[in-house]
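Task: complex structure prediction.
Instruction: return structure tokens for all chains below.
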Amino acid sequence: MSRPARHRGLVAGALVAIAALVVSSCGAGGRPEDGEGGGGGGASDVGVTADTVKVGAHFPLTGVAAPGYSEIPTGAKAYFEYVNANGGVHGRTIEYVFRDDAYNPTNTSQVTNELVLQDEIFAMVGGLGTPTHSAVLDFLNGEGVPDLFVSSGSLLWDQPEQNPMTFGWQPDYEVEGKIIGQYVKQNMPDAKVGLFLQDDDFGEDGEKGARAYIDDQIVAAERYAPGNTDIGPQIAALQAAGAEVIIGFNVPSYTALSQLTALRLNYKPQWIYSNVGSDPALVGALLSRFSEGKVTDASLIDGAITTEYLPGVEESDDPWTRLWQKVWDAHGGEGKLTNYRIYGMSQAYTFVQALQAAGPEPTREGIVEALERVGGELRGPAFVPYRYSADSHAGLSGVKVVRISGDGTKDLGPVQVTDNGDADITEHTEKHAPPPPDGIPDVQPVG
Amino acid sequence: MRALVHRVLPSSVLLRHVLAVLAALVVVVLVLETTSQFRNSQFATMSYYAIAAVGLTVLTGLNGQISLGHGALMAVGAYTTALLLADGAVPFPLAMLAATAVTALVGVVVGAAAARLHGPYLAGATLALAVGVPGLAIYFDGLLGGEQGLRVSSPRPPDWLDDALYFLTANDLTGAKYLAYLGWGTLLLVLLLLANLMAGRYGRVWRAVRDDEVAAELAGLRLGRLRVLAFVVSAACAGLAGSVLAMVVRLAAPSGFTIVLSLSLLTAVVVGGLGSLTGALLGSALLVFLPPAVTNVGTSAGLTGVQAAQLAPFVYGVVLVVVMLVAPGGVMGLVRSWRRRGLRQGGSR
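Output:
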């Protein structure tokens, strides 16, 4: 290299450095302030304007978890549109944005950024999945975004001190496990019990609940890793241990797989599935797909035991189901009313209650405080009350045990409620109130 | 014009690259300061895809080894970072370095096996890596958190940096922007190192190995060692990318490192143009910005949320097919052929 060349290089370097300095200092003078928050009249907080409230959620709309779960937001949307068509909440209509995360936590964090930072939602309502939602738990709480009614029964959502903005909704898996455990103890006291568990919080919490009652009856606990579709070894191990009753804390696709595997092994125990894994319509469709048409409906899980906390689509004379049918007929899109859509509508109903309680000028802090103060008294589509208070962000408090019969269910016992840990199980005797005549809750503002 | 460019630019390759990176840094600062928080978070996402993609383009484009297992290498980096940052004792730059080193070590092992394999066999072996490694996280769920993964406490901007940037730009340093700076700072550093490596002796011999093994061996090059080295460099990039991913996503979970991740890295590299750092950047930008853009177009065209979500993978597939048909050399291949045509016309003058 010649000497002048090196020299020129240094000069050019200095020039660029100066340019960099100049450019970045320009920024200081040029730009006044950032435009955070929504402006305009009647806007009490981010995502709230004089006539709208914007909420959002993440769901698996594509990919392996999409069957079933992708119907939840369509149900919620239909109910929000029904409320909007009837005047909205405190004169505001609800805008509902839901985005696809394909059940991949990396995507969840991206779409949540999009919802919170670009769409500027007021609150997250019903974000789905334990691994997915736990990826955004810190972010939502750090940004102060109300994170209401997570669509998962994990115990993670009930940590009011660590995550003050997050609330659970459905009965958590431990509560469900306890009630199933007590049912088995009372009705099949001599049966050998096997557990079939998803290898994460779902199976772990459910196992904890069940063991609280029937630890001495459990002869085997087998776990599967989600994604691994060969569960032959697990089912064979349960068979070898002589289990006459199997309690499954698994997702719908593994309900179908466990049925087909047991069929192949000529193994006929009494199956008990958690609510999450027992939707007859979806399990029937999955059975048909996995067996390549050899099994065409849900008749395999006919007679299996599960739990329920919402009136289902087959209970067509229940006043709540009639309301959901009316809402879906008027505002739904393609397809029929399903249990997943009812789930979404029920969450949407709870959000409308919370928004009403937050008053005519809702704020993010305000809606959390309102839920803590009156959440325990709210009544809605579920058979049981919520456990919301200043010290608890846990959702519904119980379930009833039912037997699957055709596409519907038959009650096996009363509605029961309990809490996490040592809390006793008690019968819930309060009558399940029908929905208000216009189908829209009427909660008085708090404070 | 060409003469002018030559007179202004220094002739030292290193200095030229340093200048380019400095210029890029200015652009990055300008872009991050003028875009919204959400765009910042998208840029943060793009940075980790790009770090892994530039590493992969060195391996595949320059050395001719295919890898379908880079997602798994990113997982190694992400989990290392998550474990080190768990109790808050280790500062994050150290965690990033450790993630890079650990993944490079894994790269030595995998690379040693990979150097003996060719074509479809190599693709198969690395594919097995991509499928197998996330399973480890589920098997050792006590340490690695199973299906739910490990939550990562991503670094908060230190006060002095917040103050300094506020002094310069009068903007507050948000979490999203800080992570974007972190990601892009790392990316620019990686680009600088790789650009030098590619312009130097190793770039030359890697190309020689790719183009004609026999000729390279006759020229005295040790094929195996060079292949392993290329794999290690590429793995180190993937590990660093995984480390940035863990901090940006705040989570290391097996469902984040599926085979889809490895494949999208490869498509990013191919769509951008094999062997080109700029191409890898373009490809990663496509990965990050295309799906939400398509979804938004779909929604505003009146599709339902579910349909709009399904549109994104479809359009992505169409783009891939079109690129393969129209520009098999990727975007940078197209640019290069235009430039060559321009030169030929210029030469006839």
